[in-house]
Write the structure tokens for this entry.
Amino acid sequence: MSLASRSRRSAPLVALTAGEPAGIGPDLCVLAARRSLPCRLVVLADRELLAQRAQMLGVPLKLPDFDEAGDLHGYPAVLHHPLAAAVIPGKATPENVPYVLALLRTAVNGCLRGRFDALVTAPVHKGVVNDAGIPFTGHTELLAELTGARTVVMLLVGAGMRVALATTHLPLRRVADAITHESLEATIRVLRRDLQQRFGLRAPRILVAGLNPHAGEGGHLGREELDVIAPVLNRLRSEGFDLEGPLPADTLFNPAVLARGDCVLAMYHDQGLPVLKHASFGAGVNVTLGLPIIRTSVDHGTALERAGSGDVEVGSLVAAIELATQLASTERADAAE
């Protein structure tokens, strides 16, 4: 066996779910499969959907079927799941929601059984899933349910930043009530553990944002910092956690402040992610911490209006595949020690 063959055989096997079939997920899978990647890649999708999208994009594509016996010839490969209904690019339909969820269940089960080393997900359309009568707030929450994870944390990586969220897809009026002593402590424990175990940071320093303007201004602009956030941080500091905060969010993302930490913990979705996405959109990666599996994703949505047009950027998906490969390789190395 050649050195290249041995290297390919030892590379992590990454499962890529194609996401919403009427969006740009299939386009991205087609384009990513043509890239030189550091892993073995299996795309979970309808075979004909990928072929049709490749034809629309005007690119040649040959994806052999995934070999259940583990034969590594011909990667990237496709693990075929049939669509429930015909797809018109740009027009999502609830009829294909079972297909979308089946891709995720198959990929998660494969990761849990050790069949795949990591999972990368193309975007799904939350509204269409809910239109199908299935309560759905996002990949993060569904993956927690499928894996039995008690606490999961959304982490975005890009432009040299790591930004985690204390709450995820919640209406703004519900955020304050969702930040409790118990939930915040659990989030910080998961964040610190995975920064250590998956990102190799022996003693991560976490910069924690306040919830209110000016971090509450001593209680004059809200008491969540005094009553919840600061007590949790103090308790965890007594256990050796390296935490700074609560910090005013409007100055936290100053480069001089960011340089003091390894990760930012924002209190809600639109507090932390606009800054990171402004700096790295198209190359950022969404990582779900707290799962028993490795999962990364793109930093954008389904972009229905661009499906099949060729007006798509594959950078975020490639970055997600590369980071998933890196995390899987680190996990393998740790397991071998």
